[in-house]
Amino acid sequence: MDLTRRPRKRALFIGINYVGQSAELSGCVNDVVDMRALLAGANYTETRVLYDGRWSGPFLGELNDTAPTRANMTSAFRWLVAGAGVGDQLFLHYSGHGSQLRSQMFQEADGLDEVIVPVDYETAGMIRDDELYALLVTPLRGTGAALRAVLDCCHSGTGIDLRYNLGFTADGEVARGTRGVRGAATVGGGTGAADTAAISSVVARLTADAVRAELARWFGADAAAGAVAVLGATAAEPFLEWTGDGDSAIVHEPGAVERRGVQPGAGTPDILVLSGCADNQTSADATFSRRANGALTYHVLADLRIAIASGVWPPVTTLLRGLRRRIRAAGFDQVPQISSEVPVGGTTCFSL
Which one of 21, 121, 145, 283 has the fewest CB atoms closer than 10 angstroms to its CB? Predict the structure, then answer.
């Protein structure tokens, strides 16, 4: 161990508006402009920014106008975790489209991989959650580094495929988003877009009978019977919506530990991911005070500004509860999520 090594603070910001494309968004570059400015006050000295369109904030002279292509994004993910060591604090902010594709390895409970969408997705493809896990999580095992991530995109609840999801006890199913969105509903012509629309309408339902009936409507009775056998008794994602009673709960993603062949232990990295919505939901690309932003980014910035100014970081349960309340009060249906590689409790903080 190098006793002279000083911990590093390194951040990666990716904002994609898909300028000139049919699925163009408005607030994603603004999101990373705002987050980059905020984290300057948290002593992140090593940063990279990938974006398209116009940068409308500070630090313009520091940017190298790196396009958020698939190749550049995967290279930047490798940079973020390269050489990580004890005490390092890493941060990732992605704002752009998210979608779902049929799982290639049949490892997902709902049969779908969550994906993020590079600017050149139509030719280079999307980036699946399994690939993000390999790029961001596996290299951090045993390093003693911590990673915090914010994914402001659709279908992002398990966007990095971590083991545990933090939820709150509730009755009833999670509502689906219906506002201007950052996901499959607006990504036209990309690989898997049609499959995503069909499958999302199936897996949002909670019972096997409903799944069977919907699959039969889309694909025929024989396909429905086989698919229900694969999906199991329910197609519901393991997310619980908070309803105000304050009782927190940790929800294990079925099969996640087993399929990776690695049990949680001393080498498991300290990773928390805040995502804009559940896997079967969409995240809003919205306008606040006549300026475009993502609903998640806009609201979490307020929490992080207070935390950085005060030096007191919010417990994840407090952060998630407050975000859900305010986003719901603002008229959005999306339900933010927090996931982790190890179980988190009421004292675990979303610290930067």
Answer: 21
Which pairing describes strands 98-102 and 112-116: parallel, antiparallel, or unpaired?
antiparallel
Is the pLDDT at 266 greater than 90? The verdict is: no
3-state secondary structure the chain: CCCCCCCCEEEEEEECCCCCCCCCCCCHHHHHHHHHHHHHCCCCCEEEEEECCCCCCCCHHHCCCECCCHHHHHHHHHHHHCCCCCCCEEEEEEECCEEEEECCCCCCCCCEEEEECCCCHHHHCCEEHHHHHHHHHHHHCCCCCEEEEEEECCCCCCCCCCCEEEEECCCCCCCCCCCCECCCCCCCCCCCHHHHHHHHHHHCCCCHHHHHHHHHHHHCHHHHHHHHHHHCCCCCCCCCCCCCCCCEEEEECCCHHHHHCCCCCCCCCEEEEEECCCCCCCCEEEEECCEEEEHHHHHHHHHHHHHHHHCCCCEHHHHHHHHHHHHHHCCCCCCCEEEECCCCCCCCECCC
- Which fold does the domain 9-183+239-340 belong to in CATH? Rossmann fold (3.40.50)
pLDDT at 64 over 90: no
| Domains of the chain by residue range | 9-183+239-340
pLDDT class of 182 with cuts at 50, 70, 90:
low
Which is the catalytic residue, given 28, 93, 97, 153?
Answer: 97
Contact 246, 318 (CB under 8 A): no
28 is catalytic: no
| Residue 178 banded pLDDT, cuts 50, 70, 90 | very low
For CA atoms 190, 70, 39, 162, give the dihedral sign.
positive
CA dihedral 239, 244, 248, 253 (to 10 degrees): 0
Can you tell me the mean pLDDT for 120-128? 96
Residue type present at position 21:
Q
Q: Full-prediction pTM beyond 0.70?
A: yes
Please say whether the dihedral angle defined by the alpha carbons of residues 156, 160, 161 and 165, taken in this order, is positive or negative.
Answer: negative
Instruction: Tell me whether residue 154 is one of the annotated catalytic residues.
Output: yes
The pLDDT of residue 179 is above 60:
no
Among the listed residues 154, 155, 277, 299, the single catalytic one is 154
